[in-house]
Structures are given as C-alpha cells and as structure tokens.
C-alpha cells in the first residue's frame, strides 16, 4: 500500500491471529506509593497524596502509549454502553432497522474471530437479492462494541478495477489515520491490533482483497456475494431467515396479520429479510389476500425462487415519487422512533406529537385512524412528513425526538432528516 506502516504483516488466509499489540504496564513514577496507605487513622493528606499518585500513574501510562504509537489509551473515549453503540473511533453506517434473527450467525462470527484474523461473510447462494451481509456486520460491531476501540468501514461496492480499489482503500484508511491523530493529539503512527475492526464491504473478488488489507493484527470482516476459491474454514455463509423467524418478523411489522396468515406467507418465501419487509408493507397497506395473490407459484422458476418454487416478484425497492426518503431510510426512521421513548407508551407518544404540533403551527397534522396501534400512528406521521411540500414537518420530528429520546436514537433520526433536507428539492 502507499501508506507507510509499522507492525506485522497480515496473517495468511485462514491463519491464526498473530500477537496483538498491548500496552505494557507502566512503572510507578518517582515518589509514588507502591501499596495502600495503612492504619485506621489515615488522614486527609494521605488520601490526597494517594489520589495524586493514581493520577500520575494514569498520566504515565498514557504517555508511554503515545510514545509507542499505541492508541488504546488515547482512543478510549467517553464511557459507552457495552452493547448497542459504536467504538470511540468509527465511520460505520447506521443500522438499518428492523434487524432480526441473526443471533446464531453473529455468535458463529465471534467464534471465527477467536480462531482467525479475518473472516469472509458471503451469500449462501449467489441470488439476485442479498441477504443482509452489511447489516449483519454492523450488528456484530454494535453487539460487541466493548471489544473494539476502532471500527472502520471500507466501502468497496461497485469498484471492480484493482488499481481503483487500491486507491479507494488507501484514501479511506488515510481518513482513519487523520481521525486517530486528531483524537489522540499525537502524530505518532498508529498500529492496528485485535481491538481494531476493519470491514471491507461489498468487495468484488474475495480472493484478491487480501492483497489490499491494512497491515497489522486487526480483525477484518469481508462481505461479498461470492464464497471465493481460496478461503478455508474462516468463512460464513449467510442464507435466509428460518420460517419461524420470518413469521415473527412479519407479525412485528404488519399488525393486521394473524399468526396463521403470517405463517402461511413465511412458508411461501425464501427468508430474504428485505423481501419479507416488502411483503409486510404490502400486507399492512393492501391486506393478506393481496400478498397471497402476489406469491403465486411460478412453474420452472430460476435459482432465485424460494425452495417451494414460489417466486418473490418484488424488485429492489425504489423511492416513490414525492418521497423525500428512500424505502430503507424511511423504515429505519420508523423503527428508530418505535424503539425509542417516543413509541414506548401512548403517553410518551402524545408528548412527542404535541411538540411537533407546536413546532409546525399554524399548520396542522392530518388526523390518524390508528386503531390503537402506535406503529400506525408513527407510520402515518412519517409518511406525511416525507410527502410534505417543505421539510418543516420532518425537521420538527427530529427536534421533538432529540428532546425526548435517548442520545443515540436522536442522533440517528437527525442524520436521516439532515440527509433528506439536503436533497429535498431533488425529489
């Protein structure tokens, strides 16, 4: 690579992880106490001295880490939740919601990283529609965020030229280095170890991407439709959700479906999460019978048909005319609101909607025949906002959510709204 780097070379494909970089324990600074103060009558002066000694130890550990180019200490950042957030240094995309039914595969990914330096996540079959590899990579990082100080996303989708791919990765890695220097306040070279996670997403050829890996002993997760030819046991195939998981997803997304109807629809599909969500949308808007008619057996279907021979005639979703958010962003916005304080109870929803009404006054919100379902109410408000002539309603949603929901939910909603506002007049 064109970026100068220090540290061990990447491990061979399927090879065991090499030793990670670790910060050695610092020696006590001159004059520091080597043990606790003794005696029940320990005075305030002794307590102050002990506190100062602890600060000196912390400061020396930080200085030693910087001198060696190690970033674990300076990148430790603010306190974060053991699950659900992202590491202190990260450029990961937001999790597209809902995300369901991949617990077993994520657990297997953890096991693979326990044995190998890098892992390939690929489709079980090279079907036209992917099965959520990128979203699983994001979910893995969020679930095990406490294990990483850095998580960096290399977007490789669509780059088939090898030299172009090399430049793309170099540029994205340079951005990471600059961010590390700003965060640590040190120009020293950074050296990835096992507390760094690199995701190379949507690579065209999994067998060649190894040549472009950033050196070091970081965890590397590669997503690709193909299983490649040179990868061994350090690869994981991702297929459809089980019928039980598919049924549960439909029930969560389409409150009008009965348990029996959701089970029947799930049995006619191949477990593709994206397609299941589209069917749930159809069930909510047009009813169960419309979905059943759409999932009609097609004789002699190609390899992209589910095992039962039922074609899924839903193309990749497109942004509807007049919609200022694409289908995935719109669904993520709705799910984020539902999973936040906003969607917790009728009372919290009422506080949120009252804030929106005040913000858009003298305009009024359309009436909602919600049938008692909080999802119906939130979907209606979001749909009105993304079809509105101005972004005023959508901005009001973001501000009301920031005031009421937790910091992470507020940040996700704000990013989605800001992206929509920037391109408002283009749709």
Give a verbal description of the structure:
With 427 residues, the protein is of the alpha/beta class. The chain has three domains: 89-238, Rossmann fold (3-Layer(aba) Sandwich), CATH 3.40.50.300; 241-317; 327-426. 43% of the residues lie in helices and 7% in strands. It has 13 helices and six strands. The chain has helices at residues 44-67, 103-115, 133-143, 162-184, 243-253, 259-267, 273-286, 288-294, 327-339, 346-360, 374-387, 392-404, 407-422; strands at residues 89-90, 118-123, 150-155, 196-201, 219-224, 235-238. The protein has a six-stranded parallel β-sheet, with helices on both faces. It is globular and about 55 Å long. The model is unreliable at 1-45, 54-83 and 307-319 (pLDDT under 50).
Number of helices: 13
Task: Sketch the major β-sheet.
Answer: 6 strands, parallel
Reported by name, the CATH topology of the largest domain is: Rossmann fold
Give the strand line-up of the largest sheet: 1-3-4-5-2-6
Which second-level CATH architecture of the largest domain applies?
A: 3-Layer(aba) Sandwich
CATH superfamily descriptor of the largest domain: P-loop containing nucleotide triphosphate hydrolases
Which CATH C-level class of the largest domain is it?
A: Alpha Beta
pLDDT < 50 runs, ≥5 residues: 1-45, 54-83, 307-319
Beta-strand percentage?
Answer: 5-15%
**SSE run:** HEHEHEHEEEHHHHHHHHH
């Amino acid at each position: 690579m064109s970026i100068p780097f220090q540290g061990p070379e990447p491990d061979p494909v399927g090879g065991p992880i090499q030793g990670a970089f670790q910060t050695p324990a610092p020696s006590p600074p001159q004059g520091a106490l080597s043990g606790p103060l003794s005696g029940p009558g320990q005075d305030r002066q002794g307590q102050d001295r002990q506190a100062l000694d602890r600060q000196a130890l912390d400061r020396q550990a930080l200085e030693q880490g910087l001198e060696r180019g190690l970033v674990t200490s300076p990148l430790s950042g603010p306190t974060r939740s053991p699950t659900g957030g992202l590491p202190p240094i990260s450029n990961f995309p937001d999790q597209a919601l809902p995300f369901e039914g991949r617990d077993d595969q994520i657990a297997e990914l953890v096991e693979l990283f326990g044995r190998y330096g890098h892992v390939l996540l690929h489709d079980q079959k090279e079907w036209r529609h992917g099965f959520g590899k990128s979203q699983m990579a994001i979910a893995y990082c969020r679930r095990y965020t406490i294990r990483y100080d850095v998580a960096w996303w290399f977007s490789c989708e669509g780059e088939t030229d090898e030299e172009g791919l090399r430049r793309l990765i170099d540029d994205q890695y340079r951005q990471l280095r600059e961010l590390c220097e700003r965060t640590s306040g040190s120009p020293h070279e950074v050296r990835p170890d096992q507390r760094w996670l690199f995701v190379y997403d949507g690579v065209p050829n999994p067998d060649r991407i190894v040549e472009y890996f950033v050196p070091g002993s970081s965890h590397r997760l590669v997503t690709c439709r193909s299983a490649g030819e040179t990868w061994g046991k350090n690869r994981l195939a991702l297929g459809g959700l089980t019928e039980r998981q598919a049924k549960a997803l439909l029930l969560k997304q389409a409150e009008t479906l009965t348990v029996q109807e959701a089970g029947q629809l799930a049995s006619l599909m191949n477990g593709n999460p994206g397609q299941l969500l589209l069917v749930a949308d159809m069930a909510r808007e047009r009813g169960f019978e419309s979905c059943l008619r759409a999932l009609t057996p097609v004789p002699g279907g190609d390899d992209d048909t589910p095992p039962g021979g039922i074609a899924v005639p839903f193309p990749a979703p497109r942004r509807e005319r007049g919609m200022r958010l694409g289908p995935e962003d719109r669904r993520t916005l709705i799910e984020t609101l539902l999973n936040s304080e906003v969607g917790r109870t009728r009372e919290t929803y009422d506080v949120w909607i009252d804030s929106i009404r005040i913000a858009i006054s003298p305009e009024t919100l359309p009436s909602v025949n919600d049938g008692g379902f909080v999802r119906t109410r939130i979907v209606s408000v979001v749909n009105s906002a993304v079809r509105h002539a101005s972004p005023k309603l959508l901005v009001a949603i973001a501000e009301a959510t920031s005031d009421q929901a937790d910091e992470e939910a507020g940040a996700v909603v704000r990013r989605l709204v800001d992206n929509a506002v920037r391109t408002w007049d283009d749709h």
